[in-house]
Input
Amino acid sequence: MSAYPAGFKYTKDHEWIELAGDRGKVGITDYAQQQLGDVVYVELPEVGAKVKQGQSFGTIESVKAVSELYSPVSGEVVDVNTALKDKPETVNKDPHGSWMVVLKLSNAGEAGGLLDAAQYQDLIK
Amino acid sequence: MVPFGGWDMPVEYSGIVAEHMAVRERAGLFDVSHMGEIEIAGKDALAAVQRIASNDAAKLQVGQAQYSGLMTPAGTFVDDLLVYRLAPAHFLLVVNASNIQKDYGWIAEQIEPAGDAVAVDASSRYALLAIQGPAALEVLQPLTGVDLSSIKYYWFAHGEVASIRATISRTGYTGEDGFEIFVPPQSADRVWLALLESGRAAGAIPCGLGARDTLRLEAAMRLYGNDIDGTTTALEADLGWIVGWNKTDFLGADVLRAQKANGVARKLVGFEMIDRGIARQGYDVYTTASTSAPAGKVTSGTQTPYLKKSIGMAYVPADQAAPGTELDVDIRGRRTRARVVPMPFYKRPRPPPAAGG
Output
């Protein structure tokens, strides 16, 4: 099991975001990948796509289920981890290193409402 | 754990992909005790089985098993099952867990005209374990005095496993060589542990419902409730080979014979995705000709761990069923291209000694 990095923010939908200035890398948590099981498919948006907080920006599929990926914040997709297309199982092995998109935040205030690592770990207890 | 047919069953132990690969490359151990067992015995037991089950049970010798269908008068499935001939006038029917009550009621009612035969729901008397995979024989052999290599595919033998009275059947639901082992429920844990211990060196691991489903789908084995049910006939499901065409009469015979003579309007096909995406059960399927209304639905679909392909089965119009035909699957609002391919998707490289049944 991976530790939950203290520098990340988390959502109740089990995504994480690692903020740096007005940008943030987004992925799913270790808890989420455990619940999903073996990830076999990741569908991500194109660079330039606009996303809103709490809305789906893609899908992730394990052998047994389909799940939406919900954006922790609003913004524009400025980078996509295309390597996950061919190696989706990376999400199981290294969930907190497997970023999916980089967002340029359109409303920095939204990040303040996200959970910190301790709050998130309480949520999944 | 998930509820399944009245049982709490694990979807996975170590992970669906790892379990699936273990069965294809080494061996996997399944607890399939949820399956139902119905026995039919009496002077006219053969006539009773011949009436209710589609395949020709007269071809079975004692010690032999066959895949068959429990059909309605409309040629559709009450259930699918394995029929074992325990003695000349004694048969064991292995049925799906969720259908045990329905099947037993149906069988008890439908065998009456056949004469002197009784059906008994013996499900509580059997636990069922399955050791499946290329190493299955070497895992099981040290635990039993039965010479496993002498059991042909779809045959069975009685003996002991880990000093427990057992019936050992060379059958399975994975597309691999392997054995299904019927034991008394009170001793099932002992046999399970003995098999795990014996299989350790060969890399055998416990497997759950998730891998059971992906394995059977790669092997194109139908799943009742997904690919076949009370609305689909044996011929629509492309299972004409489990119909005993030479039998005089059986439930569903009229409809099935008419379909055989005149053809079916729709047929179950296997497909693989051309575009990226995973087709799941219930997704709409369109033919290239059908622009508005869907032509059918995906009955089973997954990304398969061994073939590493996105595959599935669907009912499509019979004129669109030839391998190579292109189809569209509606994956959450997106038309995604697929191609009809021959089934099974996966065939094991080395078949076991001799085919029977």
User: Anything to note?
Assistant: The helical segments of chain A are 30-36, 83-86, 90-93, 117-123. The beta strands of chain A are 9-10, 15-20, 23-28, 39-43, 50-51, 56-62, 66-70, 75-80, 101-105.
